[in-house]
Amino acid sequence: MDRKSSAWVWLLFPLVGAGVAETTDPWTHLESIAGRLVFYQMEGNATRVRNTGELASRVPTKTTFERFDPQKNFSTAKFTYTWDLGDGQVIRGREPVVRYRYSASGNYTLRLKVGANVTTYSPAIADVYSTEVQVLDAIKSIELKGPSDYQVSKNTSLAFHVDGSPPMWVCWRFLTDCVADEAASCTLTALYGNTLRLNHTFTAAGVHCVDISVHNDVSRMQTSFSLYVRNNNTHLIFILSCAAVLLATFSFIAVIACRPRHRHGSQVATCSNAVFLKNQDAEGQSAIVFNFSDVAKGEKEPLLTQHGTQ
User: Fold this and answer.
1) How far is the C-alpha of 210 from the C-alpha of 172, rounded, in Å?
2) How many of the other CB atoms lie within 10 Å of CB of 87?
3) Which long-range contacts (CB under 8 A, 24 or more apart) does 122-127 make?
4) pLDDT (tens digit, 9 = 90+) per residue, 208-224?
5) Where in the chain are the domains?
6) 14 preceded by a cis bond (ω within 30 of 0)
7) Is the pTM of this model over 0.70?
């Protein structure tokens, strides 16, 4: 190789090196911003991670965008975040976190647009992330809507209203004398509405308890109800009612048989008497007639009245 040819080789090396450096520049090959959305909700003093896409309504919520950048390619980039919560709220900022709350249950689509300016000379990079969010009402209360009267050996229907978004899972059990039995397990029931109906027959009088535990995908609640069960007095009430009817009937008969009469301004008791009378007419024919009269106290009524000459 002559001196002229070797000069071209030395000129080509810088050009090839520059081309390799340009094609391996990390800023020119960044086509997307990798990351994920994480949801947090505060319940009292506790913070829960909601990684299933189900959130509780009317609960303070924080959503963060956790960027995946193991090569530190975006360590000096400037980001912008536009949060579309799907319920009409749009929040813009430069931090990968947003705080909000959904006021009503339902299905929403949350969209996040992430923009990054890596260098002054490189084009801006933008990506859009979206996820479906199901907002449920947290369980707020469990109320007993059943009857207030409970009797032994009588089938009783109890109704419980659960304030929360279905589907819910209910675990319930009855405790005699409110004594917990560690060996007894509860009965698990799926609830697709807001009313739980239970049928139960109490076998003993006294105080009984119903333990109920309810949970859905965003909340949980447990409570207990005390029920007073009394003995069944239906037979005794029936017997007393019959006795009262019989007593009233006999009293009515006695009043009709011996009713009061007014005579000379004073009230005396009289009774109605029926007397058989034998009557003989002028032709010598005899006839028996009935004579009904009232006999006052102290008076005498002849048993037989004869007409004719003594």
Assistant:
1) 7
2) 15
3) 122/27, 122/28, 125/30, 125/31, 125/32, 125/33, 127/32, 127/33
4) 899 999 999 888 999 99
5) 24-136, 141-230, 270-310
6) no
7) no
